């Protein structure tokens, strides 16, 4: 399950950055393309985000994460590049 969490963390981080790129660059240059991409990008990011949070809760006990570590892992999903940091610092040596 940890391997699935690692993959989800990376994919969630990528989807977050793609969603930001869509909002920042494509919206200003091509509004029609922005609206075409918004729903599939938003939906995929939302599913990955929810999966990341659920997997974090499921892995908390098996990975022996204390409350501080668990909080950092959850908050990282809200910050761009945060899930990449989590994957590198907390998950790299565990799979």
TrEMBL record:
Residues 2-90 form the DUF3817 domain. It is found in: Cell membrane. The chain crosses the membrane at residues 7-26, 38-58, 70-86. It holds the Pfam family DUF3817. Keywords: Cell membrane, Membrane, Transmembrane, Transmembrane helix. It is a multi-pass membrane protein. The keyword Heme does not apply. NCBIfam families: integ_memb_HG (TIGR03954). This is DUF3817 domain-containing protein. It comes from Flavobacterium calami.
């Amino acid at each position: 399950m940890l391997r699935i969490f690692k993959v989800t963390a990376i994919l969630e981080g990528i989807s977050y950055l793609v969603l930001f790129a869509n909002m920042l660059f494509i919206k200003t240059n091509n509004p029609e393309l922005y609206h075409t991409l918004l729903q599939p990008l938003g939906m995929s990011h939302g599913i990955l985000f929810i999966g990341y949070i659920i997997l974090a809760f499921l892995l908390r006990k098996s990975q022996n994460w204390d409350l501080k570590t668990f909080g950092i892992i959850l908050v990282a999903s809200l910050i761009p590049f945060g899930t990449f940091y989590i994957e590198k610092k907390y998950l790299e040596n565990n799979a």
